[in-house]
Amino acid sequence: MTARPWHGEGRRVYLQEVGTRDGLQGEAQFVPTPDKIALVDALTDAGLAKIEVTSFVSPKAIPQMRDAEQVLREIRRAPGVVYSALVPNVRGAERAIDARADELNLVMSASESHNLANLRMTREQSFTALAEVAALARGAGVPVNVSLSCSFGCPMEGEVPADEVMAWCERLLETMGAHGITLCDTTGMAWPGQVHALTTAFRERWPQTELTLHFHNTRGMGLANVLAALDAGADRFDASFGGIGGCPYAPGASGNVSTEEVAHALELMGYDTGVDVPRLLAAVAKLPGLIGHDVPGQILRAGRRLDLHPLPADFEAIRARAEART
After folding, report:
1. Are 199 and 228 in contact (CB under 8 A)?
2. 169 an active-site residue?
């Protein structure tokens, strides 16, 4: 029996930061390497359970990640925090392992159309390539997580059958040997009932496997989907500080669910996220200056629920006039 989603009863939930990879990779303004390192260190201090620090992709393809080795080598590491890196192929895996990644995150799509459009390969070709990466990682003693894009719908195909998603999870876990799976709502197509059903099915099939949910707030259902997954037994969620990031197949839409918004909400509901929200907000506050624009997250602008505002300067005069009318 899981706790009611509106009352966490101290239940542990692990928030995993993806903003320094998924969020920054699409930013046109290059964030200087020392600032990237400082952001990761600030996120460590804020209590995130896992941080996807960077990605080992071609610098020509994603210039923002051209400093991946230096960032991963020079961050300050805290015991118990997992410092992950996205890798697309064997060469990227070799670079990440050499830079001391704690985990490799691999990506393929549950949708054939999205896999071809995004990765230029069929799903079978992706699986073969990722299996080679997983074998390399296994030999180096580095765990592998696979992020399965479009698990809740494809922007080109529409619905992706749950049975198809589960079949790919089975191959990734039982054939490839991944230690964890992330079910990704790549363009924000998920809705709470669907999330609850797919999370329940996964937890029943693989109760000991590390399952992460990765939601986008494209259609405003990000937090509702987090609560639905919690109610179905999930305890790990990707999120991006400031809500930065997104997908090219949902242009102009909101990005990932905001780390500080999820942490703030779950703290109010009694969940134990381990996150120090004020420290997290201090890190978020640095983002607009580094990326050259405001961030989608609301907490930075509005403040936490009980961040109160000063009384009007003429408040006592207002009170006096009101009392005089009684």
Report:
1. yes
2. no
Alpha-carbon gap, residue 186 to 63, rounded angstroms: 22
How many domains in the chain? 1
Range of the domain at 99: 14-324
CA gyration radius for the chain?
A: 21
For residue 281, being part of any structural domain is answered with yes
Which three-class secondary structure state does DSSP give residue 164?
helix
H-only helix segments in the chain: 33-45, 68-74, 90-98, 112-119, 123-140, 162-170, 192-205, 222-231, 259-268, 277-284, 287-291, 299-302, 315-324
Neighbours of 322 (CB within 10 A): 9
**15, β-bridge pairs:** 237
Question: How do residues 23-65 score in pLDDT, each as one tens digit?
Answer: 999 899 999 999 999 999 999 999 999 999 999 999 999 999 9
* pLDDT above 90 coverage of the chain, percent: 93
- Is 3 domain-assigned? no
Q: How far apart are CA 302 and CA 321, in angstroms?
A: 30
Has residue 288 been placed in a domain?
Answer: yes
Separation in Å, CA 148 to CA 3, 122, 136, 184, 269 = 27, 14, 20, 6, 29
pTM recorded for the entire structure: 0.95
Q: What is the CATH number of the domain that holds 248?
A: 3.20.20.70
Burial of 260 (0-12, 13-18, 19+ CB in 10 A): buried
Q: Note whether 271 and 8 are within 8 A (CB).
A: yes
From 150, 169, 184, 247, active-site residue: 247
Spatial separation of the C-alpha atoms in residues 65 and 312, rounded to whole Å: 47
Confidence check: pLDDT of 2 > 70: no
**Alpha-carbon torsion angle 252, 49, 146, 117, nearest 10:** 10
**How far apart are alpha carbons 182 and 65 in whole angstroms?**
22
Q: Is residue 8 in a domain? A: no
